[in-house]
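New to this. Please check this record:
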Amino acid sequence: MNKLQRDSTFWTITGQVTILNFFLGGFGPTQPLLREEQNTSLTIAGLHGTMMGLASIIAGALQTSLVHKFGRKNSAWLGLTIFALGIPIFATGNSVSVTLPATLLLSTGFTITINNAITQLSHHYPKNSDLAISQMNGVNSAGYVFGTVIVGTLAFYDISWRLGLLACIPMVILVYILGRNKIEGSHDHDVPKQVGKLSRQYWIAWFGFYASISSEFATAFWAATLIMDRTGADAAISILCIATLGTGMGLGRWFGPVVLKRFSVDNRVKIFLVLQMTSFAAFWLSHNLTISILLLLFIGLGISGQFAMISIRLIRLSDNRPDLAMGYSAYAAGIAIASAPFLLAFMGDYIGISRAYLIVPVYIAISYMAVQKVSSEELTKL
């Protein structure tokens, strides 16, 4: 593995995605607080995840057209602008009639930016794309942790948690001012529109990606609720506990490629999935707050490398059509984000959150089987 040169392109793209993860770190854990304020059921509260998923599908449908017309760099900035426009609508909304469409708007911009961040880094670092994407995700996991901690702290001291999410707006402005001319080699012109059918192998890997995202978002959205149910901790404390999930994800994303550098991309995914499965099993059985916090760290480590590594698998399996691959991957993410948290919440209303959480290991197993079924390693030289 060659040493990664983290240049201005790397740091600008990383800055964009870190802001998104700051929001995500605050958004997921605030669902119990938002549910309490709006006096809704778990099922209705879970519709916010459904809006995020629908937005991902919309962004996926737009991906190749946006890149063809504006280029990857400008498409990423456009996505970040849409995201910033949705933030104040969501943060000031008091009813689901406002927060649901606001979630749809900001999440569309969120996914457009993410998709183009992956393809830009993959092209900018053709020999080190796994390390570049993983380390980008490692840095932006710090944003996830800070978002969780800030929102949780505001809630703990009875200060409006919405202020934490509004902080994203000046962050977007700052990153644009500092980085608008810093992304190199982004193919802003003459990017052909990528079309055509993808292979059966791609779609098997795609389904594994769907299952991976499902397990991540089901865990992130409702882990605080499970901790409250199992340990009796209050909402604010439970939200702060979720920061350990993001900490584990950050550590795994930054150090994982170095620690696991002798393993292939496919085998790294398997290692991450096994760690996630074993840690989740222990977390589900735990009734102790301290142990639950520690296990969330290990669950985060297990989740950490999956998005980057499976994205690389999808690009490898796309027959040199990375924008098309990432566009379709957004469909997988969208379906996962729309369905998994909502399904878990719906089941939780009827059978309890603890039993409902048993759907998570099913997702993990599906993702593992997809990697086992389809190898991407034969395509690394293409």
Remarks:
- The radius of gyration is 19 Å.
- The chain has one domain: 9-182+198-377.
- The chain has 17 helices and no strands.
- Residues 228 and 235 are 7 Å apart (CA to CA).
